[in-house]
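Risk register update: the risk of archive-format incompatibility is retired. Evidence:
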Amino acid sequence: MDAVSYPEKKVNEFITNSFIPLRVRSDTQPFATNFNLKWTPTLIVLDTEGKEHHRTIGFLSPEELIPSLLLGIAKVHFDLNEFKEALSKLEKVLSDFPESSSAPESMYLRGVCLYKSTNNPKGLKDAYEQLQNKYPESEWTKRAYPYRLL
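Archived output:
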């Protein structure tokens, strides 16, 4: 990723503005053990307490890296029950990167956020219908399949 993704200005600015990046070799202890590092690159999104919320393994192009990291930020907010902030990041993935591999999971998680923040199952059903329409072969569409019954 050093040769392709990280040098991209938009990637560099996004990482600089959104994270406190830390690069460690995959065999650096205690990180390798504590974070179960087995392959490079491994990107892990942590919260302020150091708890992991999102992980990617392997090369990501600039077009895939930013939405993956946005999804990671959304997952931090989701796990902290900060649904408004999570929804904001998920909407950005869906509006700015609708063809990325992170988009289906973002659409699924958006439906779950809507449900958890309102207790209205409509968000879940809408998520399934949108996934079925836009990403019919996605694993996230299959995971949302039961929501069609709501």
